[in-house]
Amino acid sequence: MSKNNLVIVESPAKAKTIKKYLGSKFDVVASMGHVRDLPKSRLGVDLEENFEPSYSVIKDKREIVKKLKEKASKSDKVILATDPDREGEAIAWHLSYILKLDPSEENRVTFNEITKSGVKAGMQNIRRINSSLVDSQQARRVLDRLVGYKLSPFLCQKIHKGLSAGRVQSVALKILSDREKEIAKFKPEEYWTISAVLNSSEPDSKQFISNFWGKGNEAIELKTEEDSKKILDNLKDAKYIVSDVKLGKRKKNPPAPFVTSTLQQEAVRKLNFTSRKTMKIAQELYEGLKIEEHGFTGLITYMRTDSTRVSDEAVSEIYSFIEGKWGSSYLPEKRRVFKKSANAQDAHEAIRPSIPSLEPSKLKGDLSVDQYKLYKLIWDRFTASQMSSCLMNTVRVKISANDYIFKSSGSSVEFDGFTVLYEESKDSKEEEKNILPELAVGQECELVKLENTQHFTEPPPRFSEASLIKTLEENGVGRPSTYSSIISTILSREYVINENKKFFVSELGIIVNDLLEKYFSPVVDAGFTAKMETDLDQIESGKFEWRNVIKNFYDDFANTLEDAKEKTKDLKIHLKEDETDEICDLCGSHMVVKRSRFGKFLGCSNYPECKNIKKISKSLGVKCHKCGGDIVKKLTKTRRNFYGCSNYPKCDFASWYPPTGEFCPKCGEPLFTKGKKTVCLSCDGKD
Fold it and tell me: Cys-Cys link to 15, which of 28, 42, 182, 497 (CB 3.0-4.6 A)?
């Protein structure tokens, strides 16, 4: 390879790490992501010319493109080393066009991991740009543009400005809206349970619980208190005799190493990270960080993957680590191979540590708190996936009392296996383990007490971010790499509110979904969208031509849109305005919450006679030390947060930091929250 080589990657962090491995013969620079895209101000797709996209250099990338052109003109060889996925392939294609590179030239490399061996493997497998992969990305981009730029104006016209619709976004909203309607329609039904708290009568034995099941071979439902009281009356003076004991063993296998969707789900459950935050930190770990004794190195393999496949080298390395730390009994009898999902592309390995033996404790001083948490989660999951199974002893017991049957079940760990390190979280609450004493058939148990409890059936659970991601993936809607942006969009549009880690659909979200469902049913249909996703994947495999896929969709979509416009030409939906306690200082009417494309604001309810408007300020629940007014959170013109008095301009108090409502014991001045500390700005100095 020539001495003057230019390697283009996407980020400066990745450039720095790769430069370390390639050495002085290579100049490694970053494109800072996409450099060309469809224009924001117009559709950018020529409907008369077979959906020809009109790309242009992104405005804030013009200086970067200029520098890339200068460097490329002075280089003997330009190597495009953007991320190893559809988006990365498309960025490489756009760079090739901008830099006027030969399309037939082998100048594309990909790195599954940013380590010495990973970079070396990539550089030894230089190839041409994969046109099918590029076409697949183009098809998605054009399709999303057509749906978004055609449907969004329709929503804005019928409801209000600032709304949007999308090919996957609208399906996600429908899934959430359907659940919201199920919950609203749900009618709870009463039922009762009877639990016997028993003692085995053996010395030092612990109490255990057995639940009423039925009579003979027939289960009995207790729907009312009267039903349960009849059973309780018949249990008076009953003897509780063990009638059956079944002992068994159960093997609990470890979960597969992470793919994109399972990483996002588990990070929500275990770390309380949003999917967006998870992907951002994972990108940092992949691109490389400065590690003591290693220098700049990538810590995980590529984080956008649907494959559970793992390299032989990685398995061999982690086996050595497991054996050294826990012993050979913690290694599986044979190498684990995990079943891949039906839609898996299997282009990359699972998400795993790029240096498996580099355990998290060794990196604590080199990583931020969040980077450490995510790396540990990935390392633990991968290591556990290659460990032996957990062996459980199980017991099921039947207890007879006056011909009635009570049942108990329990389990104990015979060998912990992979659970010594890691256990997968669940969305639903798991039942507490009931530890049973040793029991024998014919043994009489002592009744401590009977508990008669009323219950009501519960509505379907609201979606969390983790369960929504799981549902989207199970339905084949979108791709895991896009889930974080989809969820961010429906939250930012205020279609959905996230409270206590659960999604609630707003009135606006229900109205938008109902309108789309009525007039654009295929767009919000999960099955239709999944079929479209499959077609897009067929482009990637070279089986379908991308323009034909777009045409097949758009012909029907355009007719549906025209039909909807005709049917709704006189329709205008007015959202209920939320009246506030704030009084208009011009006319004395109540102010109401209004919406614009810039967000919510306060407007006079006497509009259009009075056109007074105000910014919405969020009260902190703290009084101003100067005048007694409410302290509210505000925004500067540059959208920086600050805190001021609601009586402004009569009161001029303002601060970059929120006051606590308490006062300094030294000087009597107000205390403020600065980061995680409470400080007195008078004593500690002002910023």
Answer: 28
Q: Residue 425 and residue 452: Cα distance in Å, rounded?
A: 31
State the sign of the Cα–Cα–Cα–Cα dihedral 112, 114, 120, 122.
positive
Q: Which amino acid is at 417?
A: G
HSE (side-chain half, CA atoms, 13 Å) at 261 = 22
pTM for this predicted structure: 0.82
Which ranges of 77-224 would DSSP assign to H, the alpha helix? 86-98, 116-123, 131-158, 169-185
User: Is residue 386 within 8 Å of 322, Cβ to Cβ?
Assistant: yes
Tokens coding 121? 């493997």
Q: What is the pLDDT of residues 228-271, one digit of tens each?
A: 999 999 999 999 999 999 999 999 999 999 999 999 999 999 99
The two three-digit tokens of residue 17, written as one number:
């790490």
Only one residue has tokens 């230089």, namely 126
How far, in Å, are 256, 301, 469 from residue 339 at the CA level?
Answer: 9, 20, 20
Please tell me the distance from the alpha carbon of residue 561 to that of residue 276, in angstroms, as a whole number. 32
Distance from chain centroid for Cα 606:
43
- Count how many residues are written for the chain: 687
SS3 201: coil
- How far is it, in rounded angstroms, from Cα 621 to Cα 623? 7
Question: Mind listing the pLDDT tens digit for each residue in 80-93?
Answer: 999 999 999 999 99
Q: At 52, is the secondary structure helix, strand, or coil? A: strand
d(CA 374, CA 267): 7
Q: Report which of 254, 251, 256 is spatially closest to residue 415, judged by C-alpha positions.
A: 251
Q: Which residues pair with 196 in a beta bridge?
A: 210, 450
Where do we find the tokens 């495999």?
541
Handedness of CA 211, 216, 219, 221 (dihedral sign): negative
Distance in angstroms (rounded) separating the CA atoms of residues 416 and 393: 11
Report the distance separating Cα 128 and Cα 103, nearest Å: 8
- Per residue in 159-183, pLDDT (tens digit) is 988 899 999 999 999 999 999 999 9
Residues 149 and 153: their CA atoms lie apart, in Å, by 7
| Distance separating alpha carbons of residues 535 and 379, to the nearest angstrom | 35
CB atoms within 10 A of CB 6: 21
From residue 257, how far is each of 153, 306, 500 by CA, in Å? 43, 11, 28
CA atoms in the 13 A half-sphere facing the CB of 482: 21
Sole residue written with tokens 């016209």: 157
Q: Which residues are catalytic?
A: 302
Q: How far apart are alpha carbons 669 and 672 in whole angstroms?
A: 10
**Separation of alpha carbons 19 and 30, rounded Å:** 11
Return the pLDDT at 616. 73
Task: In whole angstroms, give the CA distance from residue 563 to residue 568.
Answer: 9
All structural domains of the chain: 5-129 (3.40.50.140), 139-185+462-567 (1.10.460.10), 190-253+390-456 (2.70.20.10), 260-385 (1.10.290.10)
